[in-house]
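Support case: user asked for a sample of complex input and structure output to validate their parser. Sending the pair below.
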Amino acid sequence: MNKIILILQREYLTRVRKKTFIISTILFPVLYLGLIFGTGYIAAKTSSVLKVAVVDSSGYFDKGKLERENQTDSSTILTLVNQSEDSLKANYKTLGFDGFIIVPANTSWERGLDLKLQMGKTLGMEGSSPVRNKMNNIWDNIKNEKLGINDSIKHTLQTSSVRLSQKNLNDDTANSGIATGIGYFSGFFMYIILLLYGSQVMMGVMEEKTNRIAEVIVSSVKPFQLMLGKIIGIGLVALTQFALWILFIFLIYNVTGASSKMDASMTTGIVGGMQAVFTSIDVPLIIFCFAFYLLGGFFFYSSLYAAIGSAVNEDMREAQSLSFPITMLVIISIALMSAAMKDPSGPLAVWGSIIPFSSPIIMMARIPFGVPGTVPWWQLIVSMASLIIGFLLTTWFAGKIYRTGILMYGKKPSWKEMLKWAFRKS
Amino acid sequence: MPLLELNNLKKYFATQKAVDDISLTIEKGQIFGLLGPNGAGKTTLIRMITGIFYPDEGEIIFDGKKFDPLNDIAYIGYMPEERGLYKKMKIGEQALYLAQLKGLSKYDATKKIREWFTKLDMESWWNKKVEDLSKGMSQKLQFVTTVLHEPKLIILDEPFSGLDPVNANLIKDEIFNLSKRGATVIFSTHRMEQVEEICDHIALVNKGKKILDGTVQQVKHQYKENLFRVTFASQLTPEHLAVDLFKVIKRNDQELILKLEYANNNEVLQYFIHKGLQIESFNEILPSLNDIFIRLVEGTPVTRQFQEVNQ
């Protein structure tokens, strides 16, 4: 037992003191936030106002309507001009426009209108949509006027709609929106951790082979102890890094005054939202289950990754190709998550949350919908038990492969050979 | 009581019988040479002694009791042929880590590391990384990590490979010192000249079987060819040599190499004295271990062949 602790201490300290750890821990949140705020900032600063000339031969579009729209959306400016199409085509640029639109004389408000935005370049679909929206708003105005729809009728049309919310007869507190949000979040979080740190375990295990120190270590400790020490040590590094990331993002968010951009109404809105979250879901249970499934899933997958790491010979490509099936399992789980979330009580969701391969992701997506409302207690217990049995099995299996693989240099073994190692008596 | 007894050990792999019924006894304080060509089964045998592999058949008795890998490995130090240390780890820290894995407390380990580093002139290395060392330096380091915990049994697999003569000598001296202090050393190598210098007892294995076992002197006498070298102060004439007592293999001016078949040494000496020749020296030429090795192993294929194993 002490030896496992010695090993995990060494694994943890070696990784945490490396420059790459510190850099990636600080860099990631900085980059992430930089991306979010930066792109928005750059987009705002560099986009130029699109100036479009409008020639109206129909008489529907008047200056006042265009002015009103220009004031609402200043990213484009529509101006009424009085020229022929040909002369405009020749000199729209010198007049200071980026392009022009000709509204034909035979326009009728009862039929639709096909207009062409003529420019010296081609914009993306997003680029021309503000113009289309403005023209549609003006067109709506025109239609309303012609139909005699006044403001109060317009108001009724816009605000009277059907809103649909859910009520679970078996569970009063369930809230679909919040549950879906938290479910997705947990699922993705789990997915990232499993993939990222699973492969870290795989590379960590290859370290003894690359350094050729495997035999020396294995003459002092049992291979199983070495494997376990590495898995736990790397797991702790993962936890540390995540905790630091959350801390950093929190700090940066507060310090850079991003919080000052929020005004009082937004803050109360968020606080109110948080309260709703806390009442509709069982937070302690979710936290407990999240911790359980994170641990269970991590052990389950990282022991498989460790088995592969011990079997290959320092060649990352071999490692990647052998580990492909495992990575696929995680990806499939995430893909199934969306389908399962449409009906969290349906058979896909139930089975997905019990089978150990997908249960960390899918069960965590289901739980916010309510225990025992959506997830009966028996399902939760069966799922947890099968995950425990699952990771005990994969750890045992990995141990067998590890003890043979780690001393072997030479050709890359196939899955069939590795299975033989697992079942051969040592 | 011998430190290590191997009784009828067998270890078969799918492609070959790596160890096929080997029995050995190693007494305390011996420097024991384990010899054999490539693929003979030496490394597999060693891995069974260090608890890395478990024998298919046979038993290992360590210090009078059945070998218990979990606990006994604290008393064994093993330097494998495949040299390796964590490249990016600092040296002092790594020696400490390896010693603690063997069961030493942090305090004891630190103390012993400092002692050894001073002894072998390695004090300035503590904070350097292993990748900064040359090959000879890293082998010295690996030697230190092997013997740090004062094991009863030290197993060295090709310890001198890649070392320059100065460092090889240093390690050789340390092996002698350790043996004097009571450690038992198993020393596996192909380099016969080193074996003659260092080992008292040897065993030769080939194709998984033991084909020689004895002290160096015993083995040499077993394979001697009754050759003797005699040097004279006086000149030799052909007339001196026309006798049935011996056969002349080689002759220089004042030196003879003779093969004695029936006569014993005293008869030959008396003959020369009787002839009035002044004898300067007379000694037996024992075969070198290298010659014995080649003679015994010759005829087996140069590399180990794969064979079908029916269990």
